[in-house]
Amino acid sequence: MSTASAAPEYPDKIDGAVLKIAGVVVIGAIMSILDITVVNVALPDLQTTFTGADDPLPYSTVAWTVTAYTLALATVIPLTGWAADRFGTKRLYMLAVGLFTAGSVLCAAANSINMLILFRVLQGLGGGLLMPLGMTIMTRAAGPKRMGRLMAILGVPMLLGPILGPIIGGWLIDHYSWHWIFLINLPLGLIALAYAAWALPSDSPEPTESFDFVGMLMMSPGLALFLYGISSIPEEGTFFSAKVIGFGTVGLLLLIAFVIYSFKPKHPLLDLRLFSNRQLTVATITMFIFAAAFFGGLLLVPTYFQQVRGESPLDAGLLVAPQGIGAMLTMPIAGALADKIPVGRIVPFGLILIIGGMFAMTQVDGSTSYWGYIIPVLFVMGLGMGATMMPIMTSAIKTLTHHQVARGSTLLNITQQVASSIGVAIMSVVLTNGLKNDKLVSQAQGFHEATKGMTDPAQIQGVLPKFPEVAQILATATPTTAQAKLMDAVSQAMGKVFGNTFWVAAILVALTLIPALMMPRKHEESHFADDDADGVPPVLMH
Fold it and tell me: Transmembrane segments in this chain: where (predicted)?
């Protein structure tokens, strides 16, 4: 095949043409990521929506509306590289937006929990394509010298999703109904489709590669089964239940078989040969540990505000916002720096801020000051996140050839998805077991269940000996202060359990420093415009 095609010429500054393309990608990414977090707020509402308040669905059942979306997301990501080469990024991106929007409308029309779960899968199939495709489109449009600044733009939805999700979800449910958390995607999707049709340049597909069906039969089911096993850990309360070990092991064996097999075909589903690039390998390892620690820790903060401090979902979302504000301040700076200096000189400083914030969060209890402690700590952690995530991705993508970008983006997105699932599962189990093992918290819950409906003080006194921790607190309280005193003591105990759980997140983030210090500290030559090993010319943007 001729290699006469010249690589595109890229201006040094971010120009209007690139910003026009970035706008399309950011809208799509916001839709996908926002939907992961916005549904979390609706879960209590969904427990009674289809069955009535007298017969609520188990939490583990409605949690499938989140799990099904995540599994579909992870399953379709490996197809992105092949599909982008086969059909072209513009057509595939518009198909993904259309699938996601259609899935959203169907979710809003669901009249049973099983129907909602099914439509969430459809939504996830579209959403899973949006992020890696978006990274591919922007990287090809920007070129290597502007990659850091462009990744900073792509980082906006990654921040806005976790921050705005609970706020928007809480507001829509409070003022309207759960249907609107899905219907809000209809106007967004239509805007994204029209904008994509106008703004995205047509690209030349490379339909030379055959589809790796054998790899698909191992990779996608393996990933889905493994993540299903991992996501069952919080519900089971242990890493060693039959459900977790059964699904997790089968999934892991399929993934191992895929890894062994993937070096045989010329065009594998997931190109693990890219790991021969040292910079990509180091960045991927750093991303894996960072995503597990940070996204696992991110789950704890709004949960702390709601469970320990009694805040509403909307208020909890607003209290987490300072983290996003901090990240928005440093992300464009880190993006600009990543184009000028090696990321190995940027990422460790961001990680140190996050590590400091995580260790500070280990000291929280049930009455820690918001403005005097928690909000400044979250702001500092946000500053660290803005200086960390996008430079890691920039480092990974920067040394790939033009034709490898779609497959490199796919690798990074799978890494982040798997790591986030593992991190959330670890933090959930540590937190759940911590609350279960705390004598006061577990006895207070038992006391509440045992005395439900009781009005006779003598009858309540008769139950107290079974719960000595509760009895000890109530012994020094008057009848009018008893309930408030018990609630205060329980919230203090729960707060300390949350603080202890942050130790796990803090230690995991600290471990991220090891691979981060191996990231390039000198400028390395970019191969972005080179042909790949097969002599395939770069995919030109017209």
Answer: 21-42, 62-80, 92-111, 150-173, 179-201, 213-233, 239-261, 282-305, 317-338, 345-364, 370-390, 411-431, 497-518
